[in-house]
Amino acid sequence: MNLSWCYVSTATPAFDLQRLDELYQSSREFNLTHGISGVLLYSGGRFCQLIEGPAAGMAEVMARVRGCPLHVHLLTLYEEDVPQAAFPSWSLGTASDWRGQRMEVPGDGQLARLTPAQQSACRVLRNFIAWEDAGSPQDFVPTRY
Could you tell me what percent of the chain has a pLDDT over 70? Predict the structure, then answer.
């Protein structure tokens, strides 16, 4: 059984956008060694992440995320045990990965195998990307599904 966790947070002034690639790289390395998969999105000073994996690895990654000084106002959208990961082949996917995969609408095809909470998290991720693509001046507000 895997644990699945989705959250949004706000970048602190300490976060430098030029360090985003470094953050992705170090997170991917950590995730690979702990059996963690998922996706991390960043736009307009906001993070949105869905990560999943074995309980022991998730405990470490969740402590790492919660203790990171690069973001604040972490809001957990959901946390649950799941039979399988939504993105098992992504040690840490990005918005470009998501767009390139042309992820299906939750409830159809590939994502139909996910729990309702995972499907809702995928909707939040999709809406986060749409918000970014639209260049929206207003802040992203996660919608409860």
Answer: 78
| Structural domain count, the chain | 1
Instruction: Give the rounded percent of residues in the chain with a pLDDT score beyond 90.
Output: 34
**Among all chains, which residue has been given the structure tokens 């999709």?**
126
Report residue 23 as tokens: 């953050």
Range of the domain at 119: 2-133
Is this prediction's pTM over 0.85? Answer: no
Asked, for residue 57, whether it belongs to a domain, the answer is yes
Question: Tokens 């590939």 map to which residue?
Answer: 110
- Which residues are CB-neighbours of 87 under 8 A, at least 6 positions away? 37, 38, 39, 50, 52, 93
Q: Which two tokens stand for residue 88?
A: 């098992």
Residue 144 in any domain: the answer is no
